[in-house]
Design goal:
The complex is a heterodimer of chains A (365) and B (584). Chain A has 8 helices and 20 strands. In chain A, a hairpin with a 2-residue loop joins strand 4 and strand 5. In chain A, helix 2 packs across helix 3. Chain A is globular. By secondary structure, chain B is mostly helical. Chain B has 25 helices and 2 strands. Chain B has a two-stranded antiparallel sheet. Chain B is globular, with a radius of gyration of 26 Å. Classes of the chains: A alpha+beta (365), B mainly alpha (584). At the A-B interface, strand 5, strand 6, strand 7, helix 2 and helix 4 of A face helix 1, helix 21 and helix 22 of B.
């Protein structure tokens, strides 16, 4: 449905300074998918989205919607944003304060590329508003809505013209924490029920994991890993991703044992030699980074985790509600460990912890 | 569904172009107006070196005009006069405006909103009206005050002489005090009060804080206001024209008019352009200094975005003195001159109030006004009062959009161009338009002697103010509001009409009324460009005055002021409604 090929955009800020915001980014979004661009601020995710919208003009690359190019430096064509028939929800919602709720939603039908009769406008706006449960507020001036209502209004306005593509730029970031949690689920249900293809931009990993079919993690203008939420979380192939999604202990190491065609390798790290699983093919002697998630460090020995046993002392603890966030000192190194609050030994006690091989992920440094 | 159809018939344009027709229209407006604005000083510069008839191919280039002007003792005298006049103006306006601003922003003075409104509306009172009043009041021979003092004290010489550089500076300074007030009030308002409070906590007494903290911090802003007032004073026409002209005391602008339309002989464009070039250079230098002061003001970081509520000084028993000071200002600058103008308009010839004078009162000046000319002037003025603000604001929206919203390389240059009419005295633009009409547009469109030439120069003259207003409001409109309209499929034109303009609405109404009022009373620019066929109402007043019809001029001034009242009331109402501008 959406194909982005070798998209590049450089910002020229004041003086001669340039900043490569998007660096040869390529990805495809299948029909009906929710595709998420996830990354820290300044990673180029919003710029990429704005290129798809047509609000930024890329320096090079091609963007195809449904097979036809809307922006292409190859065929030298450009479709202005107003002609792309894309729905977009802005971070600020961009609700027009001088119009009523109804008028806000009717705007794309009145002034957009589709010619819609006024009777149709009436029915379609009403239907869109009822889909986001705002039909009872349609005559209210738009500024008189709460944050959550404004967010739903922005959504209704974005899909009222039944675009094939919906773009969402951090739509949940202006909501308070409780509402954000509710809207996460609601938003996905809504997009799925309308059956739209969506690109979603966020820096919140939980939002990305809950909402998406596919996540692309971006850093420094590049996509560093693409995959399903489960993939991205469980099998990061890149130290940046391992650290950005969830928490990770990242250990630099050298491969000491590796067999061609085998995932199981042994890596010498500051914590000792660990039995690891390689995420890519690596040879003995290669430099790797080993990622261990705090929640995968166990204090009970089992058949699976007995291979990697680490001895240390408990340096500090902090209670975070559902668990105890602990720092274990092993050979002068700190290992973050998540423990059950009631089973946490006192600070200073010697502790032995175990990590199964498949939770010690080795990736190319 | 429908979406499939649309994408296929979507407009495709080359990758390198991204603007739709309405955006191109705005670029067109901005480009052509910018070219005009830059063309005017360039024409002046060009002709200042051209000797002989400008369009004569045999004409040559030399410094002859400059040598002539700067070796002419009279022209030199004019420059000295102008310098003295602008400095007096500066001192007088700051000594009234600065204390007013401090009282309003930093003390618990009651009735601040009224003061704000009176000050703003005070700016609208035409300079020629108050100048007439002061002339009748302190003319060495017929002046009312002088006559009374002479008879009271048995003197044989006048006590006051308004027909002097100091006298004219006094009158101009009084009418520019609101400018000083508005600009310095903004400085006091933006100042972080904790800077003063910490001085207070260190145990410093009030006058030490004022001297050591408040004034040094406000200094860049006050100086900036001073430079602006000096520039206005330098090119002021109304006061030197009404008071100085008949007594052969000329300043820059009145001298220009004598050069451009002398009583005898041909217009002297040579000296006029040479002197204008000098003034452009002077204004350029001052603007550069002004810019540096602004940067320094930012470095001081007294301007902050936070909504401070400074602790206000308790005036206590000084409240009465404060109000007496303010009342004195309004009496001197507005009320007394106006009353004298009314008095003068009702007498067959001017004389001090007495029983016989009251017995002689007559409406003769009103009845004997050249009504044909007045109605013609009224027609022209009315057209301009409607067209000027409308055209100016359309251009200002285009400028703001290009500068703030488009991605045109070098767009900030246009903001600089829009600011030029603020920095360079308007009268110079008047001369530029005149020469432009005479030498460039002559074969293309004969606009000289029509109201269209006035429209052009009025629009150029008000563009700085209008773009400042649209810029500051458009900055506050979140860009997403426009982009979401674009994503909804609206063209740039629709975005401007349906989203930007309605959101700018209150600002546009406010600015429209202000520009309309300024246009209504504008004399300087009109005098330079007026012929028999495009007289505006203020120009009719001026021509009556020059023809020694003082009583008639006073009468017509009153009629003009009365006609302004409804628009002023509307303006006041809008300003209050928005709680914006006139008060905050």
């Amino acid at each position: 449905m959406i194909d982005v090929k070798d998209l590049s955009l450089t910002y020229h800020s004041s003086g001669r300074q340039t900043h490569l915001a998007v660096d040869k980014v390529s990805f495809s979004v299948q029909k009906g998918q929710v595709y998420t661009l996830l990354g820290p601020s300044g990673c180029g995710k919003t710029t990429t989205l704005r290129c798809v919208a047509g609000l930024e003009k890329p320096d090079a690359g091609e963007i195809l919607i449904d097979g036809s190019p809307v922006s292409s430096s190859v065929t030298n064509s450009w479709v202005p944003p107003s002609q792309r028939a894309i729905g977009m929800v802005f971070q600020s919602y961009a609700i027009w304060p001088h119009m009523s709720v109804f008028e806000n939603v009717a705007f794309p039908l009145r002034y957009g590329p589709f010619k819609v009769s006024s009777a149709d406008i009436q029915t379609r706006v009403t239907r869109a508003l009822s889909q986001v449960q705002l039909d009872h507020l349609k005559d209210r001036p738009a500024p008189h809505l709460s944050g959550g209502q404004q967010q739903r209004l922005a959504l209704a306005r974005a899909f009222v013209m039944e675009p094939k593509v919906l773009l969402l730029d951090e739509p949940l970031s202006n909501l308070d924490a409780k509402l954000r949690e509710e809207m996460r689920v609601e938003l996905r249900q809504l997009i799925k029920s309308i059956g739209m293809t969506a690109i979603f931009v966020t820096h919140e990993q939980i939002e990305a994991l809950t909402l998406s079919d596919v996540i692309a993690v971006m850093n420094n203008g590049k996509i560093v890993q693409e995959g399903t939420p489960l993939d991205i979380y469980q099998r990061p192939t890149n130290p940046f991703v391992a650290n950005f999604i969830g928490q990770s202990n990242l250990l630099n190491g050298d491969v000491v044992e590796a067999t061609a065609g085998q995932r199981a390798i042994r890596v010498k790290t500051p914590l000792g030699t660990l039995a690891c699983e390689a995420t890519q093919e690596v040879a003995a002697g290669a430099k790797v980074v080993v990622s261990i998630r705090p929640e995968h460090v166990e204090i009970e020995k089992s058949a699976e985790n007995q291979g990697n046993a680490l001895q240390g002392t408990l340096a500090s603890t902090s209670f975070i509600g559902n668990a105890m966030d602990c720092a274990l000192r092993v050979d002068g190194q700190i290992l973050k460990v998540l423990m059950h609050a009631e089973r946490t030994p006192p600070i200073g006690s010697p502790v032995t912890v175990y990590v199964s091989n498949r939770h010690c992920l080795a990736m190319r440094a | 569904m429908t979406a499939d159809v649309t994408l296929q018939r979507a407009i495709k344009i080359p990758f390198m172009r991204r603007y739709d027709p309405s955006a191109l229209v705005m670029f067109g407006i901005v480009f052509s107006l910018s070219l005009l604005i830059i063309a005017f000083p360039i024409i002046i510069f060009w002709l200042s070196f051209r000797v002989g008839r400008p369009i004569d191919p045999a004409a040559t280039y030399s410094f002859a005009h400059y040598i002539k002007v700067f070796s002419d003792p009279f022209a030199f005298k004019v420059l000295l006069n102008t310098l003295g006049f602008s400095l007096t103006t500066l001192v007088v306006s700051l000594s009234f405006g600065l204390p007013c601003a401090w009282l309003v922003e930093r003390t618990n003075l009651p009735g601040k909103p009224i003061l704000y409104t009176l000050m703003t509306i005070g700016l609208l009172l035409p300079g020629f009206a108050t100048a007439m009043g002061w002339l009748f009041l302190m003319h060495p021979r017929i002046g009312l005050v002088n006559a009374v003092l002479k008879s009271l004290l048995g003197l044989d010489f006048p006590v006051f002489n308004i027909t002097s550089i100091i006298g004219m500076g006094w009158v101009e300074g009084l009418s520019l005090a609101p400018v000083a007030f508005i600009m310095t009030a903004a400085v006091f308002r933006a100042m972080d009060p904790s800077l003063e409070e910490s001085a207070e906590m260190s145990g410093a007494p009030f006058h030490t804080i004022a001297r050591r903290v408040t004034l040094p911090l406000a200094w860049p802003g006050i100086l900036a206001a001073g430079i602006y007032i000096f520039t206005i004073g330098f090119a002021a026409f109304d006061v030197p024209a009404i008071i100085g002209w008949s007594n052969r005391i000329f300043t820059f602008s009145t001298y220009m008019v004598t050069q451009l339309s002398p009583d005898d002989g041909l217009p002297q464009y040579g000296p006029a352009t040479a002197l204008s070039t000098f003034v452009i250079a002077l204004a350029g230098g001052l603007s550069w200094w002004y810019g540096r002061l602004q940067t320094r003001a930012h470095r001081y970081q007294v301007v902050t975005g936070k909504g401070y509520r400074p602790r206000l000084l308790e005036l206590g028993k000084y409240k009465l003195w404060a109000w007496l000071f303010l009342a004195a200002y309004f009496l001197l600058s507005k009320l007394i001159p106006l009353l004298i103008v009314i008095w003068a308009s009702l007498l067959p010839y001017f004389q001090p109030p007495s029983a016989e004078a009251i017995a002689m009162m007559t409406l003769k000046h009103f009845n004997s006004l050249p009504w044909g000319l007045v109605l013609e002037g009224l027609k022209n003025t009315t057209i301009l009062v409607f067209l000027t603000p409308t055209v100016t604001l359309i251009c200002a929206i285009a400028f703001s959009w290009v500068v703030l919203r488009s991605k045109l390389p070098g767009r900030s240059l246009f903001d600089f161009v829009a600011f030029l009419p603020h920095a360079i005295p308007n009268i110079v633009f008047g001369i530029g338009v005149l020469l432009f009409a005479l030498y460039v547009m002559r074969g293309v469109a004969p606009i000289f002697g029509t109201i269209w030439i006035l429209l052009i120069v009025f629009v150029v003259g008000r563009l700085s103010y209008a773009t400042r207003m649209t810029n500051s409001t458009m900055i506050q409109i979140h860009k997403d509001l426009e982009e979401s309209a674009q994503m909804s499929g609206a063209s740039t034109g629709t975005v401007i009409r349906r989203v930007v303009a309605p959101l700018l609405g209150p600002t546009l109404i406010y600015a429209w009324l202000w520009i309309a009022l300024i246009t209504f009373r504008e004399l300087t620019l009109a005098v330079i460009l007026t012929t028999r066929d495009n007289m505006t109402l203020p120009v009719v007043v001026w021509s009556l005055w020059v023809a020694s019809g003082f009583g008639q001029a006073a009468a017509l001034t009153l009629i003009l002021l009365v006609m302004m009242i409804p628009i002023v009331c509307l303006y006041w109402w809008v300003a209050r409604k928005m709680s914006f501008g006139a008060n905050r």
